[in-house]
């Protein structure tokens, strides 16, 4: 494929302005009909193809859409062949068993690799995150918590300052307190943050440009049938794993959960090449990738069932029952491996696993729904602001300097984050602190106003009432500032040229807002326990509000507002907390956030980035409500030149090559004759080119004036004619056709449900035109008052 642009990031960014889906460079990576056809006719039983298979026929170029129908036909043919041979010998029977079990084997390997890599990423990110603040003298490879495990100090505050752990100020200046040590710690924190960010962005830029971003928009597009070569390759996997650790440790407002899905899909793609059943069939390979994405979410959140539902609800385009079982198994294996590694030392799969012991009360549904409204508003605001910034990055010179942009964002993040303890710490630890209920063992500032130890009040006012202290007021201020900081920085961070997930920052924003609401509700219930709201449920002196629960509901609401996930999100958060009784508050908040977000726009953040990058993705959730017909969308239009077609038996090789050279279409309808315009089939440009090259190499006597025919029998030729070239084996004898009066909503439905690349339009059996996926996307953009020329790879 010839160089289309100098910018190595362009495929991710939408490819600049020279990678169209319809018109492409002439040299072979041609892209004319983003959906050129090639469904193998089962009625012809692939006879010619099986007699003498042509190497390369049936494969796809980069940035092309696969033909789902053709791939399914190929798989059925392969399956029939194996079944017919398995009784011939013990070896053939063993081969059939291997073929049947290869699906389970590939998802097992994917689950094992995903779990192992997630464990390594968790451990390394934790260690590197603590390196910014200090180092363990007894064992360099221990993080802060592990370093102080052997400490004999009696309180949590003192154990955090155990003698084995030294801050950078203690090591360099020899003093732990004072302005000098604060400035030194501040400097070292910023230095390490910038070092990690610089290393990450340089590795991505030099070795694997596809390793940046979340990866979920691209995986959704790939699962819908699009091909992006190298996106799920071994280099991308290796660089994404290393740079994900560096990006998380740099303190940028991003998470590792989205990129873990990309990492798992890379594992699935690499292992699928070990099995011919998957390596030679793009549709079957996508079943493995669906299972891999479930394994990715399983290890990201310790939620195997949530992972399966995430794959079904959010990323998969085609999800048969067999894939559901395999996704479940892959998620189970991945979670088991991660549990065996135990990266956090707490026998849990995630850092912020919590358990609540107090029930929720009916009057609390009102603040839960308010949190849902906040989540929906935040989601709508974030999507618009982030897409506007990403569009600006693409259209200005700023986007040409990814290293400078990452360094700027990392510097601002580190400088602003250090003074506030809630922004300085790892985002996962912040979420853990916000989720955790106040108990006698908690040393958090958020819990200074009360203690349940021995039933006595830790802080009492003159009347003996448990009340807030200056500690919780300052904590509320710091949380408010942290909320503003996270909101602003997340907008500028998502889309940088480093691996960046959105789950954790969104959950942190929701958890901060939820915890603030929870503390306000708790204080109201304490000081005004005689209000009608609280009188029925709250006894005087008893705890009836759990602020941590509000943080959890807020986290789910904000993540739902950004991604528009519903069922899978509720299950993920439920698996995180292990509390069945909190499903109703979660459902109420998540549903409210989706409704509020949908009021401002139906797209989630991933669909918005797919549209921004111009990927050919037909969203199944989007309804087509217009009353146009197939003839309104098909090409050629009245002002266009006539449709480029091939006749079935009166073309010479020179004429065929001229058509291929002079046009840039991705496939050609084959007709009986120019006069009758009766349709015979459809031939892909790539297949024609490969077949001609193969014939010239293997057959003698193929000349420029050789007759090319697509019929079963050769036409009658003069005696002195050169040897004719038969191309029937590459002809799709059963292309999908619709009449010119077919409503476009039916055409769109056919494209979505069958994964078509193109559909031919006929009138009384005569060929009129063609509708491709690109034509449909352009038409939908036009109907939505958008510029149709800017939606594809803009």
From TrEMBL:
A Pfam family matched in the record: CBS
SMART domains per record: CBS
Highest taxon of source: Eukaryota
Domain (CBS): residue spans on this chain: 634-700, 731-790
Membrane topology, as annotated: Multi-pass membrane protein
Cellular component terms per the entry's GO annotation: early endosome membrane; Golgi apparatus; late endosome membrane; lysosomal membrane; plasma membrane; synaptic vesicle
Entry-linked Gene3D superfamilies: 3.90.1280.20, Clc chloride channel (1.10.3080.10)
Keyword Flavoprotein on entry: no
Sequence intervals crossing the membrane: 101-125, 191-211, 231-252, 259-276, 288-312, 361-383, 403-422, 475-496, 508-529, 549-574
Single GO molecular function: ATP binding
Major localisation: membrane
Coiled coil: none
Subcellular location: Cell membrane; Early endosome membrane; Late endosome membrane; Lysosome membrane
Record keyword Nucleotide-binding present: yes
Keyword vocabulary terms for this entry: Antiport, ATP-binding, CBS domain, Cell membrane, Chloride, Endosome, Glycoprotein, Ion transport, Lysosome, Membrane, Nucleotide-binding, Repeat, Transmembrane, Transmembrane helix, Transport
Family membership: Belongs to the chloride channel (TC 2.A.49) family. ClC-3/CLCN3 subfamily.
Known function: Strongly outwardly rectifying, electrogenic H(+)/Cl(-)exchanger which mediates the exchange of chloride ions against protons. The CLC channel family contains both chloride channels and proton-coupled anion transporters that exchange chloride or another anion for protons. The presence of conserved gating glutamate residues is typical for family members that function as antiporters.
Record-given protein name: Chloride channel protein
Native source species: Alosa alosa
């Amino acid at each position: 494929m010839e160089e289309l642009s100098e910018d190595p990031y362009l495929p991710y960014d939408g490819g600049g302005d020279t990678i169209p889906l319809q018109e492409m460079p002439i040299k072979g990576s041609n892209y004319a009909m983003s959906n050129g056809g090639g469904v193998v006719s089962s009625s012809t039983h692939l006879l010619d193809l099986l007699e003498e298979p042509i190497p390369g026929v049936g494969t796809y170029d980069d940035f092309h859409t696969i033909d789902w129908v053709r791939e399914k036909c190929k798989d059925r043919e392969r399956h029939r062949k194996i079944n017919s041979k398995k009784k011939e010998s013990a070896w053939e029977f063993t081969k059939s068993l291997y073929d049947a079990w290869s699906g389970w084997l590939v998802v097992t390997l994917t689950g094992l690799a995903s779990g192992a890599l997630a464990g390594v990423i968790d451990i390394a990110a934790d260690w590197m995150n603590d390196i910014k603040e200090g180092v363990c003298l007894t064992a360099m490879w221990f993080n802060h918590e592990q370093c102080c495990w052997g400490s004999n100090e009696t309180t949590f505050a003192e154990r955090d300052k155990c003698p084995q752990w030294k801050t950078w100020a203690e090591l360099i200046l020899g003093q732990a307190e004072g302005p000098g040590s604060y400035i030194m710690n501040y400097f070292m924190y910023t230095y390490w943050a910038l070092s990690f960010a610089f290393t990450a962005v340089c590795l991505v830029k030099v070795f694997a440009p596809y390793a940046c971003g979340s990866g979920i928009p691209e995986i959704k597009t790939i699962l819908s049938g699009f091909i992006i070569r190298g996106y799920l390759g071994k280099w991308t996997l290796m660089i994404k794993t290393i740079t994900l650790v560096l990006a998380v440790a740099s303190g940028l407002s991003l998470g590792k959960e989205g990129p873990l899905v990309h990492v798992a899909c890379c594992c699935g793609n690499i292992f699928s090449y070990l099995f011919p059943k998957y390596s030679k069939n793009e549709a079957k390979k996508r079943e493995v990738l669906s299972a891999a994405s479930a394994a990715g979410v399983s290890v990201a959140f310790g939620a195997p069932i949530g992972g399966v539902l995430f794959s079904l609800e959010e990323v998969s385009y085609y999800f048969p029952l067999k894939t559901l079982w395999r996704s479940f198994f892959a998620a189970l294996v991945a979670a088991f491996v991660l549990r065996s590694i135990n990266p956090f030392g707490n026998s849990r799969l995630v850092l912020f696993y919590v358990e609540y012991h107090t029930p929720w009360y009916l009057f609390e549904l009102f603040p839960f729904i308010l949190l849902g409204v906040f989540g929906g508003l935040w989601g709508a605001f974030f999507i618009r602001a982030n897409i506007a910034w990403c569009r600006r990055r693409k259209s200005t010179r700023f986007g040409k300097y990814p290293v400078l942009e990452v360094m700027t964002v990392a510097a601002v993040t580190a400088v602003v984050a250090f003074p506030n303890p809630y922004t300085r710490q790892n985002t996962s630890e912040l979420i853990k602190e916000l989720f955790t209920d106040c108990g006698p063992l908690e040393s958090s500032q958020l819990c200074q106003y009360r203690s349940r130890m021995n039933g006595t009040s830790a802080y009492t006012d003159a009347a003996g009432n448990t009340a807030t202290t200056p500690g919780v007021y300052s904590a509320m201020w710091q949380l408010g500032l942290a909320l503003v900081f996270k909101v602003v920085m997340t907008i500028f961070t998502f889309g940088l040229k480093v691996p960046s997930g959105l789950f954790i920052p969104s959950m942190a924003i929701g958890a901060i807002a939820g915890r603030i609401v929870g503390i306000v509700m708790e204080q109201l219930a304490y000081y005004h326990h005689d209000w009608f709201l609280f009188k029925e449920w709250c006894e005087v002196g008893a705890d009836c509000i759990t602020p941590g629960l509000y943080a959890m509901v807020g986290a789910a609401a904000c993540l739902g507002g950004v991604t528009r996930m519903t069922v899978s999100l509720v299950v993920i958060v439920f698996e995180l907390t292990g509390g069945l009784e909190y499903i109703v508050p979660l459902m109420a908040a998540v549903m409210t956030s989706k409704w509020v977000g949908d009021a401002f726009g139906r797209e989630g953040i991933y669909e918005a980035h797919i549209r921004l990058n111009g990927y050919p993705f037909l969203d199944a959730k989007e309804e087509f409500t217009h009353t146009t017909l197939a003839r309104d969308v098909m090409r050629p239009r009245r002002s266009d030149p006539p449709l480029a077609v091939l006749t079935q038996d009166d073309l010479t090789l020179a004429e065929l090559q001229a058509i291929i050279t002079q046009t840039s279409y991705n496939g050609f309808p084959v007709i009986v004759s120019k006069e009758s315009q009766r349709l015979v089939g459809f031939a892909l440009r790539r297949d024609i080119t490969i077949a001609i090259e193969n014939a010239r190499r293997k057959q003698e006597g193929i000349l420029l004036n050789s007759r090319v025919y697509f019929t079963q029998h050769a036409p009658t030729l003069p005696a002195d004619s050169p040897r004719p070239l038969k191309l029937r084996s590459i002809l799709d004898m059963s292309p999908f056709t619709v009449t010119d009066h077919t409503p476009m909503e039916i055409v769109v439905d056919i494209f979505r449900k069958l994964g078509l690349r193109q559909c031919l339009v006929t009138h009384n059996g005569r060929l009129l035109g063609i509708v491709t996926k690109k034509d449909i996307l352009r038409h939908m953009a036009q109907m939505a008052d958008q510029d149709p020329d800017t939606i594809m790879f803009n």
